[in-house]
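lol forgot to send this yesterday, sorry. struct tokens for the thing we talked abt
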């Protein structure tokens, strides 16, 4: 390399690149360092902005600053060409030609790239501002080189001006270059025409809110994530800076304050792509099985006809269902599998760092290697660590995006399936199981995206590590490997016991949550009878069983943690003893490299069982979701007859129709005995348009089943069913009114546009005017969950008003008069059923036969059959009812009391709304700022002060014993007899990856004598036994402290889980009814399920690792600082930078995680609400609207999830860049040590190795766990 530089510069090989010559900067150094390097940086940064899309707004006009910059850039691109011409003409006088051509060629390419980039930015959204500041600053870097070149020419070539006019031409070009740069800077500082401080597309905080592809308005939006950003912005997440700044300023208060998802991740786009892939798979399956059946579109038109996640028109007996995994593979497989290349490249680059670092150590110890080798090693370290950090970060970021897409697709598929599956099929699962499909099972499924690439990468790392370990200690590694492999089946047995106990614990947890659900739903009755203590004891009994299994899990997990924590020390002892007994001599390089490699060996063995466990869990969840997706759907095309009616006036016809709650196969198999074997048979039924048909009969005779058969909720076993204007749906009022958790008006409108006149007519017809006048906010008063704050009569009338407002042609009314008194029932009959609905087709099921006298037709139901059809005069005498005279006398006697009672009833009905506020559904609180001190104090007291101090002290002893063991190894090596032979093979052995080291090698920082050789000598047996005995004793103490820490932490976890649940249950049982009326049951259950799970499992697990990493980091820093005090010159500024970054990050991350939690509950609440009112939603043809609402809630949650993941990657890349700085500093120090020939150069080389291999991974792990751990502690949950 020296020869190449000397030939290029025309200098001697001994000093190829002189910096200072005769009082001036060397011309070659100036051209290569101050001219070529800045232009290369300018070209690279400018290239990152190539491809920026044009702005969708108006054209760019009246921006002279941009035009000046573009013109100056093109001038600067052309001047190097003119500069080459005189260089060729006067090459004998001006020095080496190739140097001038190289410098001018680099400048030409740099300014040409920069000019084209400016043209693109001018037409993009950057054109409204000054553009990226980084590019403008980089244009200033060549100025020192231009000035020095100008001075150099003036000093060395002034005497040649008259003889060589080309020199004057070159000087003129230099002046033109400086003048062009001045014009460029003037153009940059020129004020922009409109928007200021607009450095990124994502700074658009005050624009009009855009619309998503589904047409849903996204209010108060401030920017779109990632789209339109440059490569540089994407690599370093500078587009996230506005979001991070808002989080740091406590301005992330609502989900609308975060970015919109990139277009590729938007829910509508992902959903459509997923469904198109499903259609393709269904079509291929039909072709393979040669089934000819009509195909209907998957995308619903709103009527729910024929849109299925299965191939339409097929049955399970003739065609297998489409597999969810194959569709996910087709939709996202190519993108996901290609990320394996990033994983492979990142892993390989992770190994390159230690290998090059080892070569650099050899360079430091050797006095004969040329300087060029050291420069190459330093450049390799920088490039390898820099590219490795970028690739690993981009891999994590892209995998997170694939996980988002899979999550969107699976949740949308589950929700879509729930809207279209038949009621009889849906009855196979409980509501809790179906909600779990969308929550727990989906989360486990998307975790497969992380586990899959680990399945092949961990064995790959394991194989490379074994090879490197063999290179160090030969066959001696087999003893340690055998011991490590022996613990694998032991760990498997423990893992199986943990899984068994976990299953039993989940069963007890399900029982407890089910009991808690009943407890909360019946809280009003429980408080009336003061049964809180009794039900609390039952809940505590179930919790005790759950804690018993949790105790077994935690103690088994403590044993598992102990085995793997103590394994590196035990394996190291076995390897060293075997190596010494084979007759070899230990050296510093072998000892500490073997220790690092053992740590790398443990990582795949430790992680692989858990990775496989994650894949198995994903497989189980996939099968559960697949079972749900394979349920049969409503096939309305097959259910209803497509032929016309027998009479044009018919609105409904049924001929020889048989219906059942079970399919014929299920009835034969005897499934679902709880439903009975009731079948509905309708021989001949015809309902004319505009008729009022009454359905009467005893309880359980099939009245509600008849309405369910008309709406398609039953299984049709045979016959003919025709419904007029089927696409419009039905106006359905069910026997148990379904009320949404929203305002009264929103319940009545049900998605339709507000029409004031029609709305008032509906209120009057349904006798709701007086109720709304008494409510605190009228029809804007929010009702409780499922109308808990309303009386039965109010809920029935609101459900009836909702059906009436829809304006359907056919109305199915299932006993809406049962929950109201006689006068209100008479009002509903006269004003609503016989009034506003008089021109509609109405089928009314009721036991209030006194109101059926004006019906056109009556149906008498008995045992699932229509016993008789006739006029009221024919049917009513057959019905066992109260004689009319008795009813009239009773009404006369109770007329006055009834009127007074009605007023009392109204007052009673609105008593709860009077006590509540207008908005009963209070928004879930989101605590802002840092986690309050009382939260830490509450958790500390739950653990117990003595126990908590014991855990912290055991962690201290564990880390101290580990550091002492490393020190003892260093002391052992330092007392080995010196040798004279040199073994370059030892020092050039490959070293481990810094990203995979989990065993401390900080002993390298202690004074180690200069060991240039590794001879094979016979060891002093007495000394070896002494050192091995002491080392084994220290390792035994470390093992004791490790198991003490593991079991103390497990005991603390059990204690905390017991106390926190007890306090939570006590607070809930003592709460007033106002709390339960204004708080959704799902939100309270969330505290007893998912949040309590965080206390039981997630928080202790993360906190355990967090504390271990904190102590490991502190112990390592103490050892490094003690061994190499001057490392503080690098660590001190990096520490300050680290704390500055993490403080900036933690505020934003904390708010984003809280927003994610807040937006997650509405998804599950809306899904549960949908399942409850499924028959009403489908009958009124509102499935499209509910699917759009689910999509809106999902996208809002995905926005927060994506922003949280992106903030994590923002932190990750910056911390990895800190590691790159450390590696670069190591290379610089190594070269300085080599150049100055300092004494004992091996010490700094070995001292820096642990700082590179351990500091960055532990700091990164510490920060990640910090951000994952402490959001679980905030009290806003």
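and heres what i got for the seq, position by position
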């Amino acid at each position: 390399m020296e020869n190449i530089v000397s030939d290029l510069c025309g200098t001697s090989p001994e000093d190829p690149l002189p910096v200072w010559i005769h009082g001036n900067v060397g011309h070659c150094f100036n051209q290569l360092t101050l001219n070529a390097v800045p232009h290369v940086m300018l070209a690279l940064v400018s290239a990152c902005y190539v491809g920026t899309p044009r702005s969708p707004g108006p054209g760019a006009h009246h921006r002279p600053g941009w035009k000046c910059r573009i013109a100056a850039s093109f001038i600067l691109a052309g001047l190097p060409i003119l500069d080459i011409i005189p260089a060729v003409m006067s090459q004998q006088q001006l020095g080496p030609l190739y140097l001038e051509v190289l410098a001018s060629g680099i400048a030409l390419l740099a300014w040409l790239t920069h000019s084209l980039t400016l043209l693109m930015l001018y037409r993009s959204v950057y054109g409204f501002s000054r553009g990226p500041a980084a590019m403008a600053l980089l244009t200033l870097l060549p100025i020192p080189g231009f000035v020095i070149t100008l001075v150099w020419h003036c000093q060395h070539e002034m005497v040649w001006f008259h003889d060589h006019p080309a020199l004057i031409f070159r000087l003129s070009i230099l002046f033109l270059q400086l003048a062009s740069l001045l014009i460029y800077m003037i153009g940059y500082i020129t004020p922009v025409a409109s928007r200021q401080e607009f450095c990124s597309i994502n700074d658009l905080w005050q624009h009009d809110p855009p619309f998503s592809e589904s047409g849903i308005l996204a209010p108060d939006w401030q920017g779109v994530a990632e789209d339109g950003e440059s490569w540089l912005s994407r690599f370093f997440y500078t587009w996230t800076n506005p979001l991070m700044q808002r989080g740091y300023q406590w301005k992330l208060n609502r989900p609308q304050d975060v970015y919109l998802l990139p277009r590729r991740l938007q829910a509508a786009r992902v959903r459509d792509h997923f469904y198109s892939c499903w259609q393709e798979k269904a079509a291929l399956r039909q072709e393979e099985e040669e089934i000819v059946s009509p195909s209907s579109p998957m995308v619903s038109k709103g009527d729910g006809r024929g849109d299925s996640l299965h191939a339409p028109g097929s049955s399970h007996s003739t065609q297998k269902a489409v597999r969810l995994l194959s569709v996910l593979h087709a939709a996202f497989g190519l993108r996901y599998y290609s990320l394996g290349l990033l994983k492979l490249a990142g892993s390989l680059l992770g190994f390159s760092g230690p290998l090059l670092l080892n070569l650099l150590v050899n360079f430091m110890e050797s006095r004969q290697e040329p300087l060029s080798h050291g420069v190459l090693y330093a450049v390799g370290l920088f490039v390898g660590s820099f590219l490795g950090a970028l690739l690993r970060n981009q891999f994590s970021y892209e995998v997170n995006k694939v996980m988002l897409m899979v999550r969107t697709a699976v949740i949308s598929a589950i929700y879509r399936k729930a809207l279209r599956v038949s009621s009889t099929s849906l009855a196979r699962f409980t509501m809790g199981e179906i909600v779990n499909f969308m929550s727990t099972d989906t989360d486990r499924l998307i975790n497969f995206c992380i586990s899959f690439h680990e399945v092949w990468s961990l064995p790959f790392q394991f194989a490379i590590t074994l090879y490197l370990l063999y290179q160090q200690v030969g066959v001696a590694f087999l003893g340690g490997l055998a011991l490590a492999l022996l613990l694998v089946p032991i760990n498997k047995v423990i893992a199986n016991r943990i899984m068994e106990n976990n299953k039993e614990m989940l069963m007890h947890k399900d029982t407890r949550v089910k009991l808690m659900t009943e407890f909360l739903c019946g809280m009003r009755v429980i408080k009336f009878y003061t049964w809180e203590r009794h039900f609390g004891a039952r809940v505590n009994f179930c919790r005790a069983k759950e804690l018993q299994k949790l105790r077994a899990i935690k103690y088994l997990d403590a044993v598992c943690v102990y085995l793997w924590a103590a394994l590196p020390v035990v394996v190291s002892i076995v390897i060293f003893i075997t190596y010494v007994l084979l007759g070899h001599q230990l050296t510093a390089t072998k000892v500490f490299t073997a220790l690092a490699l053992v740590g790398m060996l443990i990582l795949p063995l430790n992680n692989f069982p858990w990775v496989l466990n994650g894949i198995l869990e994903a497989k189980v969840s996939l099968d559960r979701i697949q079972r749900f997706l394979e349920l049969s759907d409503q096939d309305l095309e097959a259910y209803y007859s497509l032929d016309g009616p027998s009479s044009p006036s018919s609105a409904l016809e049924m001929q020889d129709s048989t219906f059942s709650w079970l399919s014929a196969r299920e009835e034969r198999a005897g499934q679902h005995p709880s439903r009975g074997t009731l079948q509905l048979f309708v021989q001949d039924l015809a309902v004319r348009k505009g008729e009022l048909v009454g359905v009467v009969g005893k309880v359980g005779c099939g009245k509600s089943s008849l309405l369910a058969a008309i709406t398609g909720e039953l299984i049709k076993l045979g016959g003919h069913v025709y419904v007029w204007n089927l696409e419009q749906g039905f106006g359905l009022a069910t026997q148990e009114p379904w009320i949404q958790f929203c305002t009264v008006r929103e319940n009545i409108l049900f998605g339709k546009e507000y029409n004031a006149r029609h709305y008032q007519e509906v209120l009057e017809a349904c006798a709701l005017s007086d109720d709304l006048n008494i409510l605190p906010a009228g029809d804007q008063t929010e009702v409780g969950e499922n109308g808990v704050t309303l009386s039965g009569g109010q809920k029935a009338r609101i459900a009836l008003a909702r059906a009436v407002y829809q304006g359907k042609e056919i109305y199915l009314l299932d006993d809406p008069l049962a929950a109201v008194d006689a006068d209100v029932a008479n009002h509903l009959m006269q004003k609503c059923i016989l009034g506003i609905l008089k021109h509609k087709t109405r089928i009314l099921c009721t036991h209030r036969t006194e109101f059926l006298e004006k019906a056109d037709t009556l149906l008498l139901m008995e045992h699932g059959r229509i016993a008789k059809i006739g006029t009221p005069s024919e049917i009513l005498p057959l019905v066992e009812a109260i004689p009319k005279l008795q009813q009239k006398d009773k009404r006369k006697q109770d007329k006055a009391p009834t009127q007074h009672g009605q007023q009392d009833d109204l007052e009673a009905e609105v008593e709860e709304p009077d006590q509540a506020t207008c908005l009963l559904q209070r928004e879930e609180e989101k605590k802002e700022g840092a986690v309050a001190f009382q939260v830490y104090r509450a958790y500390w007291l739950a653990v117990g002060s003595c126990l908590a101090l014991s855990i912290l002290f055991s962690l201290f002893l564990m880390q101290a014993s580990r550091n002492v063991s490393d020190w003892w190894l260093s002391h052992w090596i330092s007392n080995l007899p010196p040798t004279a032979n040199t073994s370059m093979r030892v020092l050039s052995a490959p070293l481990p990856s810094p990203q995979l080291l989990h065993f401390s090698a900080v002993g390298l920082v202690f004074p180690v004598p200069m060991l240039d050789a590794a001879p094979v000598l016979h060891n002093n047996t007495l000394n070896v036994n002494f050192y091995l005995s002491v080392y084994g004793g220290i390792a035994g103490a470390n093992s004791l402290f490790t198991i003490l820490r593991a079991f103390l932490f497990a005991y603390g976890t059990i204690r905390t889980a017991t106390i926190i649940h007890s306090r939570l249950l006590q607070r809930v049982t003592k709460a007033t009814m106002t709390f339960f009326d204004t708080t959704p049951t799902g939100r309270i259950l969330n505290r007893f399920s998912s949040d309590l799970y965080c206390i039981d499992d997630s928080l202790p697990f993360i906190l355990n690792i967090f504390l271990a990493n904190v102590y490991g980091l502190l112990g390592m820093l103490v050892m490094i600082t003690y061994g190499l005090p001057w490392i503080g010159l690098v660590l001190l500024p990096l520490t300050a930078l680290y704390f500055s970054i993490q403080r900036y990050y933690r505020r934003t991350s904390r708010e984003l995680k809280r927003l994610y939690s807040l937006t997650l509950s509405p998804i599950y609440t809306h899904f549960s609400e949908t399942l409850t009112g499924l028959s009403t939603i489908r009958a009124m043809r509102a499935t499209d609207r509910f699917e759009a609402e689910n999509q809106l809630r999902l996208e809002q949650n995905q926005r927060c999830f994506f922003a949280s993941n992106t903030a994590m990657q923002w932190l990750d890349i910056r911390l990895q860049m800190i590691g790159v700085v450390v590696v670069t500093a190591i290379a610089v120090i190594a070269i300085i040590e080599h150049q100055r020939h300092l004494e004992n150069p091996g010490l700094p080389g070995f001292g820096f190795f642990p700082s590179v291999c351990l500091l960055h991974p532990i700091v990164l792990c510490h920060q990640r766990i910090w951000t994952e751990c402490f959001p679980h502690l905030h009290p806003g949950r």
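Residues 1183-1236 form the longest helix (54 residues). anyway ping me if u want another try
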